[in-house]
Each structure stands twice: as C-alpha cells, then as structure tokens.
Records
---
Amino acid sequence: MSTTVGKKVKVRFAPSPTGDLHVGNIRTALFDWAYARHTGGSFLFRIEDTDTTRVTDEYINAAIDTLKWLGLNWDEGPEVGGENGPYLQSQRLDIYTHWAAKFIEQKDAYYCYCTPAELEAVREAQRASNQAPGYNGHCRDLTADQIAEYKAEGRGAVVRMRMPDGGTTFTDLIRGEMAFDHKFVPDFVLARADGSPLYTLAVAVDDVLMKVTHILRGEDLLSSTPRQIRVYQAMGLKEEDYPVFAHLPFVMGADNAKLSKRNGEVSIAWYRDKGFLPEAICNYLALLGWSPGDDREDLTMKELCELFTVEKVNSSPAKFDMKKLEAINGDKIRALTIDQFLDWALPFLIKAKTITGTPDEIDLVKRALPIIQERIIMFSEIPAMLAFLFVKDFAIESESVAKVTDSGAKEVLKRSLKELEPISDWTHTAIEAALRSSLIDEMGLKPRIAFTALRIATTGGTISPPLFESMELLGKEAALARISAALTL
RNA sequence: GGCCCCGUCGUCUAGCGGCCUAGGACUCUGGCUUCUCAAGUCAGCUACGAGGGUUCGAAUCCCUUCGGGGCUACCA
C-alpha cells in the first residue's frame, strides 16, 4: 500500500470545466490542495478539455479565477507553468495520439470498426438477456481481409483497449482493498474515430507523465479505475509507480441527488456574489466528508492543511447544508477586523449603488460597520442594512407608517425632538441618556414602545441597527430632520 | 437488469468490542439578556435502517435484507 514512501507527493486537481466550478468540484480541489500542503508535496492543476464541444474558454478562465479566489494556489498548471506542461489537455493531443499508436503497435489496443448502431444493438441484446453490458470483442482479432472490407465500406475506426482476462486490484486510501473482475470491465475506447482522445486515455497518460502520486477524486470515477490502471500497464509503468487512489464521497443536494445545477445554488460564483468568505466556504466544505477527529470545527486554512489527512475522509456521501455554511460565514465575518471587514464590504456597497465610494462615504461606512458586523451572515446584506445612512430621498416603509402616525407615537416624536435639539456632543451615549430620562423615566413609557416610533422615523423601518448608534451615525441634523418629517405624516 | 460504493440525531459528524443510559456542531423549540433585529448565554427535542448471528459484552465483527447512490458512451 505505501508504494510512495520516500517519494514526494504530487496531487492533482483536473476538472473538466463544462460549467462553473461547483461545490462538489471545489470540495475535491480543497482536499487535493490540503493534502498536498499537509504532506509538503505539490499541487498540480490541469484542465481536462478533451471534449471540445462541452468545454469553453470562458469556463476555463472562470475555474482559474475561482481557485485563485479561494486561495487554493497551485504549483504547476495554467498561468504558473511547470516542467510537465502544457496543462491544458487540448494542447497535448499529439501526446495522446502517440500513446494510442504505441498501444496499437504493442497489441494492447486494436482498431474497432463497429458502428454506434451495432454497438447499441449488442448492448440491447445483453441487457435483454440480463448479461453484463459491454463490448463483445467483435473486432479484437480481425483478419487483414476483414479490415480491408470494413475500410472499403468506409467505416471509421476507434482505438479500443484490450482488457486481459483476470482482474484488477488496488488499494483505495478511503475504501480499502478494491477488486474488479475484468468480466465486468469490457474493452474500452481510447480514441475516437477522428483520432481525438477520450478521458480514460488522456487522464492516465497525463497522470503518469506529470508524475502524479496521489489521485483524490470523486467516487463516480471509482469504477473507471481498472481502465486507468490498464493504461498505466500499457505505458510500461511498474506497479509500485502507479499513483495511489482515494475516491471521495459525493456532496449531495438537499433533495438527495448528486449536487448539480438543477438542485441548488452550486456555482461558487454565486456564493462569491452573495458575500461568502472563501475561508468560510473552505472551512465548511472541509467538514463535508472529513473531520479532524475531535470536536474542532472552526478552522483556518492553515489549520486545515496541518490537520488534513486522507485517512480521516469519510466514505459515505454528505448532504450540503446551507444553514451551516451561513453559520460559519457569520462566525468568520464576526472575527474580521474592522479594516478587513471594510475591504470586503465596500465592493458590495458600491455594486449596490448604496455609495459611490467617496472618502466621506467610506469614512461613514467604516464607523457604521461595527454595529452591523454581528447582524449579517453574508456581505450582500450590508447595502440594505446601511441604506438609511445614504439614501437621498428618505422614506418610511409603507407598512410602518401607521406606527408613527398614531397619537402616542407623535407624542414620543415631539418630546424626542425637544430633548435632542440641545445636545451638543452628538454621541449615542448622550442621545440615549437624554431619551431615556425623558421618554422612559418621565413619561413612563416602556422602552420598546418608546423607541419603535423613533426607529421608524430615523431609519425607515421596524428593524434596524441599534437605534442610538444609528442616530449618531446619521448626524444630528439629518436625524432631527427625519423626526420632524415623520411628524408631518 | 449487471457490476460497484454507501447506511449513527432533520443535517454534518465523533465513535474503530466494554469509557456509549451514544459526544460535538448546525437547524429547530423554550428561557435569560435586550431599544427592534441580531449576537451572546442556558436548557431541551431528536440517531446507531431492519433481521439474524459471533461474543461474557456490539453502533463497532460476520451474514441476510431493505434503502440511497454511482457506473454501465466514439461524456468526464
């Protein structure tokens, strides 16, 4: 099992960007990265874009961007280069062609002239008779005459790998000893009729050529492992040099189906727009299918690297839980310093057009942030929460108007105006002291009653940051103007 | 259908034969705190899928069964 002792660990993340990177991809990338960092090995990033009809440049760039944003830096791959490049499979086509030809030459593979319709008919028959479906070996040992005949018919040929009798065994770091009988691993296609390589060829060739030592990937690839190992053998790799496999459990959607676009917000870009911190996303994702073994849950990226081992990865699938992600994000936000918080918050305020970004605005935002830091779970909530400080034409939300126009409220507002006007040091402590002594002590009102009208008048609604701090931030002039305005309703 | 993987609170997990009348976190419920909303804090609800074994003793080992998932492409 420990065939790689003494060898420097190299882990790769090799997505096929057929869409935005999603939660499942990223969980895999995170484990790959954390394992590389934990072992002091290197992290390789490769793009599997052999299926050019499904992968686009846009998605490739987005994938690079997402990984960078999350802080999952790679040592080899797009942008940073490396001695085993290029790292886009679409730029390595001749390499795969070379190996496919070599396999043919070695008789490990053969040309298969069966048409898709013929193959489908075979599968249909197998299924009908409860047989294991798979290629029936029709073209395994064609004679020269038969080949000539097929060519004359104008048939194209795929390159198909010959699976020998017997079986494949390997050790999965997460699932233990795995054994596959080749009766259920039919000969498989390495290259299309047009010569382009398929995943199974490209992935195995690249992992070998790029000297990958550990393959941590989704469990959907578990049953394709014997085919990959077959390619290693055909390449002449010794068994002790095979990469070690670890098949990660799935991340499932709430509806218990494999996470996909259809059952939830899975694109990392969405979380970024919503205002989740990369560290919160990574922290949460790390807990999906893994735990440090004790009760620790709040982890920094550094701690994650220190604690992460494949042995502690679970073998059962995990369901994605947005609530927990939100809880972690809230905790991480509360742990931010004000300057860090400001850096994260500003783009959201500007994007929402709450502010334009003038120094005065930024200064006010910075003063306001402490009172909302413990009230948000994601940055996208900030604009709505601070809007009352910046709106040009302030208005009370319609459903709250009635609460400032009844006689009791008007009384509170009038009295407050009178108490507030003389205050020269406009601080929340001074405001609170004046209001409490007057409204609570003298008028005998319940705090909740007394301050609701003021809250609505100054912030526009029944829910707001703390009242006195909000009034302080608003400034004396604006606060009094709003209270006066409410009195005219 | 065939092959394969998986199965502890609603969710993520701890547990690797006795420390388990099963621990933690999130959610939920209730209390405290309180100028609203939060945050904080205290308490509570809730789990070893089922059935057989093995054993003095099983969540932990074995078998069966049921359930969930994956693969079964000239997708990855």
---
Amino acid sequence: MPSPTLSDVAQAAGVSYATVDRVINNRGNVAAKSIAKVNEAVAALGYVRNVAAANLSRKRVYRLAFLIPKGSNAFFNRVRDQIARVASHQSAERVTAEIIEVSAFAVAGLEASLSDLVHQDLDGVAIVGLQSERLEKPLAALREKGVAVIGLVSDLPPEFRSAYIGIDNIVAGRTAARMVGVAHAGQTGMVQTFVGSTDARDHAERLQGFCEVIAKDYPQITVRDPIMTKDDPAVLLSQTRGLLSGTPDTTALYNVGAGNSGLVQAIGEIRANRPFCVVHELVAHSRQALQEGLIDLVIDQRPDVEISRAFTVLRALIDDRDLPPLADLMPTIYVRDNLPADPLANTTEAQAT
Amino acid sequence: MPSPTLSDVAQAAGVSYATVDRVINNRGNVAAKSIAKVNEAVAALGYVRNVAAANLSRKRVYRLAFLIPKGSNAFFNRVRDQIARVASHQSAERVTAEIIEVSAFAVAGLEASLSDLVHQDLDGVAIVGLQSERLEKPLAALREKGVAVIGLVSDLPPEFRSAYIGIDNIVAGRTAARMVGVAHAGQTGMVQTFVGSTDARDHAERLQGFCEVIAKDYPQITVRDPIMTKDDPAVLLSQTRGLLSGTPDTTALYNVGAGNSGLVQAIGEIRANRPFCVVHELVAHSRQALQEGLIDLVIDQRPDVEISRAFTVLRALIDDRDLPPLADLMPTIYVRDNLPADPLANTTEAQAT
DNA sequence: CAAAAAATGATTGGCGTATATCAATACGGC
DNA sequence: GCCGTATTGATATACGCCAATCATTTTTTG
C-alpha cells in the first residue's frame, strides 16, 4: 500500500489538485469549506508530505553559517571540527555550512560579523552568543530576512533567536558540586575554585550553581573565593602550585573555566595525596589527565552532540517542520572509565560496529 | 552555483548520461577507462548524489522492525515509546517501524520471531539480542534476503549483524565502581551488590567491571558476593531491609539489575546514615529516588539516544551510505542535579527553546 | 576478416511536489 | 439578471535521478 499522494487527497476530498495545493501550502483564496474538506481527507488518508519530492521540486538548499569565536581554544577546535564533519556528511542533502570566526567574546566583533551576515543570503545561522543590546539591531535584520537564528553554547537575547542549544551552566556547576560533595563522604573539606573571568556569564553561572549546592547540602565543606585565571594555563600552574604547598587543608579543586593544562601540571608535580579535582570540557589535556589519574572528573557539554543538534534544529526551522524527539542536553560526567573514544581516532566505519 | 547533476558529470567526462548512470549505480558492463573518466569528473565537479531526487525516483521506503522483549519492564517501556515517537516523526521520510514483542530473554521465542521476519519483506531490523547458536539460521536467512540487521541494547552473534548499538556493560560496571570508590574518600568500606541473574550477560559484565576496578584501585573496599534478585522488587525490598538492619558496616549498595523500587522502599524506611547507592537505568522510580535523595547515582544507557541512532544506522545501511559522525555511546552518570526533563512531559516544541 | 561479444549512446517515462497560467464557475450585491 | 470578485478546475513544466529500451559503435575472438 503506497502512501497517498496529493492527487489521492484531491480525489478523496472531491476537489481539484489545485485546490489541495492551495490548502496544503496555504496560499489563500480558498473557501473555508474547501479547507475543511481537504483537511478531513488528509486525516482520513493519513497523508504525509513526501519531503524527498518536495525538496526536489523546490530545489531546497540549506545555506547555514556558524559564528564561532576565533582562536586555538581546544574546546572551539572541537566545535569547528564537528561542524566540518557534519557539513561534509550532509552535503548530499544540499546542506552547506560556513564557519565564520569572530574575535573571541568581543561584542563589537560579533556585532560586525552579524551585520555582514545580512547581505549573505543565508537560510540559517547558529551563533555562539553574547547577551548584549548591541546585537539586537543586526539580529532583527536577520529575522527580517527570514533567516533562522539559534544560540549555540552561549545564548543570545532570547527574543532574537528561535532556539538555544547548549547546557544550563548553573546545572553544570551544581553537578560539579554534587560530585565534590560525594567525594568528601561526610568529612569536612575546603574547596578552591578557579574562574576565567567574572564577566563570562557561563563561568559565573557555574560558580553560582556550585556554591548553591555546597551551601545547602554539604555545609561541612567550605568554598574559598575563586582565583581569577583569565583561562591562562600559566596562571593556573603558579596558583595551583602555591596552593598545594601553602594550603595543605585544601580537599578539592574546581576549575570553572579553561587553562587546565596548568592545573594538571601542578598536580602532576605532587601526585600523592592530591585534592579531588573537577574540571570542565573533555579535550586532549583533560582526557589525558583523567586517564592518568591526575584529575577525577570532567564535566562536559558534548559539543559534538550540540553541533549535530544545531544542524537538525536549523533544518527543521527552515523547513518549518516540527522537531524530532530530542533528549535534553545535560552536562555529562566523565570519569576515566566512561570516556568515549578519542574523536581524532574516529572513522565513521569504526563506530558502526 | 547550483550543484552539478549527473548530466553535468556526463558532459565533463565526455561520455553519455547512460554510461555515467552505469558507473554511479555500478550496473556493470562498463570499460575500466570509462569508469576512470567518470570518477575523475565526479571528483573534479564535486558531484554529490541528490538523495531527495534518488529517493523519490526509486520510491524508497524503509520498512523497519524492532524486536523488543515483552512485558511491562520500565526500561523497555521507555524503549518502545521512543521507537513510536521517532517512527512517527520519520513517516515523512517514508519510514515505518513495527515493534515486535518477544517473550523476554527466551531463545526459543526470539528464534521463532526471527523466523517469522523472513517472510515479512523488511528492509532493516533492530534486535535486542542474545548470544545463541540457535539464532544463526534465521539470522542468516535474513541476511540472505538483504535485510539490514543490527543488535540493540544487547548484542547478537557479531558475524550476523552489521552493527551493535548499546553500551559496553563492563564499562558501565567500571563506572559504577569508580563512583563508589570516590564516595569512600579513602575510607574502608563494604559494598553489597545485587544481580538479577547470573545468566544475564549484561548483569555479569557489569559485575565483572565493577569488581575489577574496586580490586585494583580501591583495595580498602570489600565487595560482598552478589544477592540474586530475579529483578524482583519484593526480593530487593526484603534483602535490603535485612541488610540494613543486620549489617551496619555496609557502606554502599550497587544494584546491577532492575527491581529498584524495592531497594528504594527499604532505603526510605531508614533514611538516616544510609549507604551510598548506585543503580542502573533512569526510569520513574529511580528518578524520583534520586530527586528525593534516597539514592545517589543512576548509571543510564540513554535508550532514547540508542533508538534514534538505530534508525539512523539502519537507514544508512539500507541506503549503503556511510554514517554521520556519531559519538560513542557511553554509560551516562546521573546525579539529582543533571537529570534531563521527564520524557513524559516532553513536547517537541518545549525542547526547541 | 567476419562474427560474436562488449560497451556506449540516445532517449523515455515515471517518482510526488511546487508553481504558474488560464479558463470556468460560483457567489455577492444591486 | 448583470457585473465584479472570489473561488475552483484543468493542465503543464520542472526538479534530478532511476530504470529500462533499443540502436549503434567498439572491441574481442576464432
């Protein structure tokens, strides 16, 4: 039993193909009663638009762009890789994705890049965002042109994007705190936190979530004021060194931001009797440190999953379809035992078996 | 610049459309040098087959079947729900999925169901498998008919399936052990484990992984011999009760199998000073227990992700395409802070924002 | 060198939808 | 009943590929 076509619907509804088309693609100028007849026929036959035929006919192409911070940050390298991978795989579905690099976390740079986008004839954009009023004008211009806009990893002003794909950083901080709490087994403790900058919203949120949970559920643990690191490994190295020698009562370290190679190096220098260590984002450094037992936990936001999802959501928005069932994105806890294979060693075939 | 079509390739290669078609869909009867010319032209132009057009033309439909154990097990309810959800969403791409219920974990039942499948004119099957020689004949018959076969959640004899989608249960057990180790903070301890049955391969593997890590990295923790539960909540209830009153030195519980409602109830009866508790699979019971602080950790295999992936992989196998970039499936650690929204409350729209 | 075999070319009719055009009909107000 | 507008019908073409047919050319073989 082949699935019904529009002609079948027309026949069942007792109207012409043209009328069915007018209803289905709501082109207007149709009598209410015809609309009703068509809808009934659609329901009765269980008609579903054949997307292959539709895409072919309307010569659908999906021109996507991703605005990603510039620089050699390990995390965003992972992001860029995954974008390229997915785009290459989806080229058969006429999807193209351009990566536009933006000066990291500078509103002015993002604003300029966004303004350029308007002239680019795109169908959808995913943006590693910032919360700033200065972005509103270019974002409004994009919306005006009918470009689908989503926030990625870091959100945009909500009224200017159709979706946000990323984790809740308060939840990430709470998760880290829970694990630190568990690792104290009821004993008293002292946690040193590190942040890149207090301006970074994600850092602030993680710290907030962390402190909330410790304060509420683990009152016997003290959280020291965070050390500012600018995500600089050198700063983390020296600060951690100082801490380990000078403050022996430190029972846990939690780095909210980046620059973990410095922290790991300092830990490696003492090894014995080190504090419990939690960091964010699974990249080469943190993976290795986890495997070698220099740190205990990595909280990861699964950028690969986020990117795949960004493509899915953008295409659904562009086609005006509803989304497939997608589970919530939550911070993922990695220990040395449940690490996924290194994506650099990933061939798609190897994953199939 | 519109993407090149087969006619463009023909022109560039200096051969006819028919020859290009013969090469692309390797129908044979083509001279080696023609093949080379076509391949060069494909590479030069960057030709990619338009899957929309191809699927339309060959009237592609994907008739899939999922063989899932019968019964009201909360985990497999989750699985069935997700299959229905994804199938309904993919109906626009002419995907149909039938759920075939099989007597739980009985080789005979699975064998019979498999034999039926052969007459069903399917394109792909995902099977919650068993390792048994008795399955080889029907599986070989399926392969003979060109049906794509994958193992789901629990593997099949590897030579009879093209892929396995599920977690490594040894890894799951190791992960649980790591967390139990962390939660002891170097103190001595005593862990009681529970298994459904020793025959169940997944249970045995989890236990094995668990014991490996404890023995190697946490020698101060003792693992007691597992209690057999048949995954029956009543057994877990009484056994846990007895344990909590009779053996106060128990510092952790790890249930490898199902039946957690009984365990949770027993824990709820004492609450104060309870042991550290780790269980598997996020379902209604375990979620609630986690939120209420009756247990500490749930190791989940993300059946929703597994199901989505099963559809993706089956379609890729049927189309003989290569797979999109997919991250490894690893056991996921849930604490009360990083729980995803309850899927029962999931509307697809809500997830978009 | 002729005959057989292999390879190639030329062409066609779908697949189901989108989109456009033009004619035909219905409906409303007066 | 007439006119103008709103609605409907009939029909055609294109999208890119698949699958098939038949004629023609090239290559191989004895």
